[in-house]
Amino acid sequence: MITRSFIPIFPPSDHENVAIQNSLNRMQENHSITWPQINNNPINEFQMAGYIACVFPSLYPTGSADFYAERIRDVKPAKYFRHLLLTTGREIYVKQNLTDAQITVADIQERIIQGDTYMADRIMHFGEGLRRSCQFWNSRCHELTDMIKQIRPQGLIFFTFSAADLHWPELHKLMLPNDNSEALDKTKL
Predict the structure, then answer these.
(1) Is residue 18 scored above 60 in pLDDT?
(2) Full-prediction pTM beyond 0.70?
(3) 3-state secondary structure of 17
(4) What residue spans define the domains of the chain?
(5) Does residue 84 surpass a pLDDT of 70?
(6) Dihedral angle at the C-alpha atoms of 93, 97, 102, 105, nearest 10 degrees?
(7) Which long-range contacts (CB under 8 A, 24 or more apart) does 127-130 make?
(8) Which residues contact 151 (CB under 8 A, 6 or more apart)?
(9) Distance (Å, whole) CA 67 – CA 128
(10) Which of 174, 168, 180, 171 lies closest to 1 in space, CA to CA?
């Protein structure tokens, strides 16, 4: 019978606990982002504070630096967006497709009620180019899946050689050598 594991299981260090507690304290100090209320009225993006941070959460992860945030000096929209484009690596691009019809909120709601998914599919498609967005990572996942499907006939093997030894005491309980079967029988008697 094995009474001790050959791999030591160390208790968590105090430094780790302190770091986790400090991170939790910092997260609780941050102010939460106020999301717009959901109703049938369209949102006025020119007057609602925090709108840009809600629409682009990957550009404003903390919700700060919004155009309508309180500042010491007034900032003109052209200057604000020019600065935003220069600091974010030109990840923002707005293009109006002139071939598209002008759609109202009522038109979109009517399409949703009828079960038309064209608009939602289109929005999801155009979101694939926005880095750090869900659509971006879903697109990368599909690309990786396609690569694996192409490699499959040649074989695909991936070994990490990591069994997370310090985190699986249950695994070590199951890993009894074959020679100890007699010892186990004796302990049962």
Answers:
(1) yes
(2) no
(3) helix
(4) 43-94
(5) yes
(6) -40
(7) 130/58, 130/91
(8) none
(9) 25
(10) 180
